[in-house]
Design brief:
By secondary structure, the chain is mostly helical. It has helices spanning about 10-25, 25-50, 60-85, 95-115, 120-140, 140-145, 170-190, 195-205, 205-210, 215-240, 250-265, 270-285, 295-310, 310-325, 330-360, 365-370, 380-405; strands spanning about 150, 245.
Length: about 400
């Protein structure tokens, strides 16, 4: 059994991908397709920040430009299909994520060498400038970026592979399942290469890597290219899924989404961004049906994770796993449980505050109705409940602190 243990996560993941269509259906498949795109996007960002220590505020530039490369290639396939000749007439839509990968990697190759001279805050500001520069350029070159309306296409063109005509979301699911599995496997393999190991070393101690003969700039540059390529691959998946690419895919909001997903899931832990992508995408999808403040709730979760669980959700799972192997779970779980209760109390207080403010500004919110709450913003009881929840959370957190000190 020990021989198969390293392959167990991949076999389980493959089984989940094969069984998901059988246990879900309808709109759920569309949400799963979006989750697949976000998983690859978040993992590509983790290659930069989690593994390489490079904070980027312009990562969406590679995602968006990869999307545009793929959507233009899709249009070329459609045009060539009518002519019946040329390179694109024989290029399947199934391989368009590779076009996105090439687009993202090429842009990273061009801009990466001067960018990777710097690290830390300077690198973050440079990438922020890159993101804004590319976003502004979309309005200057409408023939390439389609202006505000973007570029449309049709994915049901060109040669058909594996019988997938990509006419329905269910067909697109198998396309997404293949590429998300292949991309995740490739990025995991990257972490096991000498370059992947050296990126961790540059993150932790760049001076030492320089001393032993590995210039940090060179390592950052290669990782930057790989990360940009994988972000472009995610963009290619998005182009096929949505059949439209707009300048929003290049915006600072899209870059922020990658950061939020990676941080919520857990930076530096390989499967952390996968967890974050699933959680954040489901929150955005489910909450948007009930409240216009769905983005604000995602922000609350992000703040809670950054403040109280810096290692993310995956970091918490890793702590539980390590405590289990060390036979320390029985001693530590009461403190963890109380700490989780404190955070939940604070989140409930913030949610109740948001709902009360929303009630004052816009009237009844569907989320409150779905939860069976009848809120009255003028009632002292409602605001008193907020104060009580905050106080309870603080008290529980103090108990957790004492428990940690006792078990240190």
């Amino acid at each position: 059994m020990s021989v198969f243990r390293p392959f167990a996560p991949w076999l389980i993941s493959l089984a989940v991908l094969l069984l998901l269509p059988a246990v879900t259906g309808g709109s759920a498949v569309s949400v799963i397709n979006v989750i697949a795109i976000h998983i690859v996007f978040a993992l590509s960002y983790n290659m930069l920040l989690g593994q390489g220590g490079m904070l980027s505020f312009g990562h969406a530039a590679f995602f968006g430009l990869g999307s545009y490369a793929a959507i233009h290639a899709m249009n070329a396939i459609g045009d060539a299909a009518y002519a019946g000749e040329g390179f694109w007439a024989h290029f399947p839509v199934f391989l368009l994520p590779l076009v996105g990968f090439a687009g993202g990697a090429l842009v990273a190759l061009v801009v990466g060498w001067p960018f990777c001279r710097r690290a830390g805050t300077a690198f973050a500001m440079i990438t922020l400038g890159l993101g804004e520069l590319v976003a502004t350029g979309t309005q200057m070159f409408p023939s390439v970026f389609g202006g505000e309306t973007g570029v449309f296409s049709n994915r049901m063109v060109g040669p058909v592979w594996f019988g997938l005509e990509l006419a329905q979301p269910a067909d697109v699911y198998w396309f997404m399942a293949f590429w998300v599995f292949a991309a995740v496997l490739a990025m995991w393999a990257f972490t096991r290469t000498p370059l992947g190991r050296m990126s961790n070393a540059v993150r932790d101690n760049p001076d030492r890597t320089q001393f032993i003969g590995y210039p940090p700039r060179n390592v950052r540059f290669l990782v930057f290219i790989a990360s940009g390529g994988m972000a472009g691959l995610a963009g290619g998946m998005a182009a096929v899924n949505y059949e439209i690419v707009t300048p929003e895919s290049l915006s600072l909001v899209a870059s922020g989404l990658a950061l939020v997903m990676a941080a919520v899931g857990g930076l530096g832990i390989f499967y952390g961004p996968i967890v974050g992508a699933v959680v954040v995408t489901l929150m955005n999808s489910l909450l948007s049906d009930f409240t216009d403040a769905s983005v604000l709730y995602v922000g609350i979760v992000f703040l809670a994770v950054v403040m109280f669980a810096p290692s993310g959700l995956a970091g918490g799972l890793e702590q539980i796993r390590q405590a289990w192997h060390r036979a320390e779970l029985a001693r530590k779980w009461p403190g963890w449980l109380v700490g989780a209760a404190a955070v939940i109390a604070w989140i409930l207080a913030l949610v109740l505050t948001v709902e009360l403010v929303y009630l004052i500004r816009h009237g009844d919110d569907k989320l409150a109705q779905a939860l069976g709450l009848e809120l009255n913003a003028a009632s002292p009881l409602a605001w008193g409940t907020v104060v009580i929840l905050l106080a309870v959370g603080y008290g529980l957190w103090r108990v957790t602190a004492k428990h940690r000190e006792a078990n240190a």
